[in-house]
Amino acid sequence: MTDPVEQYRRLLEAAPVGIGGSVEILLGQLPEQTARHLRLAAIPHQFNADLLCVIDPGLAPTEANNLCETFAPLSFVAAVNGALVFHDEVRRYLFQEWLAAEPPSFREVSRRLTEHFALQEETLTGEAQVVARQQRTFHLIGADQVAGFDLFERLCRRERYGFRLNSCETLIKLVHEYDRILTPERKKWLTYHEAKLQIDLRQYSEAERLLRMLVDRGDLVPELRTRILFRLGTVKADTREWDEAAVFFRQGLDFVANHRGVEGQGMKMMLGLATVYRETDRAKEAGSLLRTTIAMAEAADDRSALAASYNSLGNLHRKLNQSRRAIEAFHNSLRHLEQAKEPFRPAQVYNNIGLVHADLAEWEPARDALEKSLEISRKAGDTHGQATALSNLARVYFNQEEHRKAVEAAGEAADLFLEIRDWYRAATTVRGLGRYYRRTGMTANARAQLQRAAHLFHRAGAEREVEEANAEIERLDKKRGLPWYAWVSLVLFALLVLVTIYAIAS
Amino acid sequence: MKPAFAHLLDEFVDREAELARFLEMLSAEGPGIMVVWGDGGVGKSTLLSRITHEIAQRDGQKSEVVWTETRNHDYLAVMRKIRDDVGVEWFVPFTDLVNYFTVPQYKLNVSVEGGAKISVGQGMDITRSQTGDIAGVLIKDVMLTEARADMHISQTERVSRLTDSFLKCLASAVANEPLVVLFDAFEKMSEETETWVWQELLTAVRDGRLGNIKLVLCGRKEPELDRSWTFVANIAQLRPLTREHLVKYLEKRGVAESGREQLAEMLLIVTHGNMLELATHVDAYLKLEK
Q1: Is this prediction's ipTM beyond 0.85?
Q2: What is the pTM of this model?
Q3: Which residue of A has its CA nearest to B78?
Q4: pLDDT of amino acid A221
Q5: Which of A267, A484, B157, B201 has its CA 20 to 30 A from that of B24?
C-alpha cells in the first residue's frame, strides 16, 4: 500500500496553485455525487437542505440533509444565520469554475434559483424581501444575462432614486461576480452605473476616474459615450470646475451632431452648457443656447424640454436682474410642466419663483412659492429639493421677523444637504445662519456657524469661500467704529456749532 | 448538524497571543475594543470561534453580526441584530421608534355591536386585554427597511434619533450584564455603515457611554485610525502559521505521527501558512488516509 503522504504529494504536484488546488484535491476524495453537489452548492451564496432540493429537484429531503451534514464539518464551511456558507475564497473559486465552463446545467440551476427567490420576494417583507430581490437578480443573470442585467439596471435606478445606496452597492457587487461572462458592452455599462453611484455618494474623484476610464476607450456605443460625456460635464459642474464642464458638454454636443440615435441627449448637453455660461457670466452665449433649445423643443413638441429650457432661461434673467422677465419665464416653464403632466418638477420652478420675489423683497409671494416648492418636494421624497426650499425659506422667515422658524428651517436645510453630501450647499446654508446671528448681535453663535461653514467649504473644495468665511470670522472679533453717517452727522454738528459761535461773536 | 464553527475549536493552534489579549480585555473593567485583521483565509474566523467559545464558557452574553455578500447590514440592521441577540424586552422604546419611522401608521377604529367579532390587522397583536377594556395594539418590528413615505424627516435626523434611542436601551440592557459584540468581515460594510459603526457605536464605547461592552471587529483590511483611537483600540494583525504551529495543528486534526513532519513541510511550501488552504488540504488528506 502506498504511503498516504507520498500519494498526497503526487496529488499536490498535479493540482492548481492556490485555494483551488486544495478544493480540487478534496473534491477528488469525495464520492462523485457528493462532489457534484458540493460544486452545485457554491452557485447560491448560502444554502440549506431546502435550497439543495431546489438546486437538484431529484434530491429527497433526507438526502439533502445528509449532504448538509457531510459538508458542515469541512474547514471552509460555516453556519451563518441558520444556513451553511462556504468561505468567500472557496465559493469564489467554485463559482468561477462554473462560469468558465458555463454548462447548460448552470443556467438551469440559476433559473430554478431565480424562481425560488422570486417566490420568496412575493411572500417575505422588509430586509428579507430585499435580500430575496437581490438574489433573484443575481441568479437571473446566470440564467439569462439579458433579462438579468436589465432587471439589475431597473433595480439599481430605483434604489438610487430612493437614495438606498447601500442596496445599490450590493447589487453592483453581485453583478461583478459575473465579470468573467459579462459581455464587454455590459461590463462598460456596469462601470457607468458604478460611476453614477459614486456621484450620488459625492465621491467625485472616483466617479471621474471611472468615467474617464470608459471615455478613453474607442469602442463605446454612441448612447453610452454621450451619457458618459454628459455625466463628466455634470461632475465638473457640481464641483464648480466650469471650464472643464464646458469642454465635456461641447464634446458631447459635437458627438451628438455626428451620430444618429442620440439626438435626445443633445438638448441635455446644451442645457448643461447654458448653465456653465450663466455661471461664468457669459449671458449672451447662454441666452443664445437657450433660444436654440426652446426652438428645438417647440419643433419637436417636447413639453418637458420646453419646461427645462424656460426654467434655465428664468435663471439667466434672474442673474441679469431682469426679475419680471425671469418670473414670466418660470411661469412658462410651469405651464409646460402642467401640459407634460409632470407632478414633481414644478418644485424646482416654484423655488426659483420664490427666489426672484425674495430678490425684490416681496416676502409674501416669495414665501407662498417656496412653501409650494417644499410641499411638492416632500411628496416626491426629493431631499435636495426640500433642502433648497428650506434654505431659501429661512431667508424669507428672517426678513419676516419669524426668527425661530428661520433658524429651524436653516438647520433642517443644512442637515438635508449633509445627508446627500452636498457640502457646498450645506456650507452656504450654515454661512447664512452665521450671518443672521452676526446681524442680530449673537456673536458666539455667529462664530460657531461661520467656523462650521468654513469647514464645510473646505470639504467641498471651495477654498476661496473658506478664506471669505475666515475673513468674516476675523471681522467679528474686530471692534467696530462708528458708521459713516454718524461721522458725517458729527462733522455737520461741529460746523453748526462753529457757525453759531462765529455768528454770536460777530 | 454541529453548531457553527464547532469543528474549529478542537483544532485551534497559534493565535494564543491574540486570544490572551481578548481574554485580558474581557476580564478588565470598563469598555474595550479589539480589531483583528489579516488576509483572507489566515484564520480570523477560527479565532472568532474560539473567542465565542470563551464567552460561552463564562456564560457571557454576546451578539454576532456577520457581513456576507448578500447580507450588507446597514446601521439599522446592525442595531436590530444586537437588539434581537440581547433581548427585545430591553429595547421597547427603540422598537417603537423604528416602527414609527418605517411602518405606515394606522388609525384603528373599533366598533362593537352585539356579538360582533373584532378582527385584528395583520402584524398586530392584542395584548394585556382585560374584560371591559379596549385592548392595546402592539405592532411588532416587521423589519421594514424603507422610511415612511408620509413622514417629513431627514435621514440624518432619523439616524440620529434611532441611534440615541438604541444606545440608551443598550446601556440599560448591559448595566448589570456585560456584552461582547462581534463583527465579522467588516471589510464588506458599505462606507456609510462603516462611518456609522465608528462614529456612533464605537465612539459611544470609547467614550464610556456603554460601559459594559466589549467589541471585537474581524476583517481583512487594516483600520485607519486616528490618535483618538490608538489608546483605546487593541489592534491585532494575524499572520500565516509557522511550521511549529502547523505540526501542532496536524496533530490536533489526527494526522498520524509518522507522516506529520513530512506533510507539514509539504503543505507549508504549497500554502505559505494560509490557514484556509491548510485546513482544506488537511480535510482532503484525512479523507485520503481513511
Answers
A1: no
A2: 0.76
A3: A127
A4: 92
A5: B201
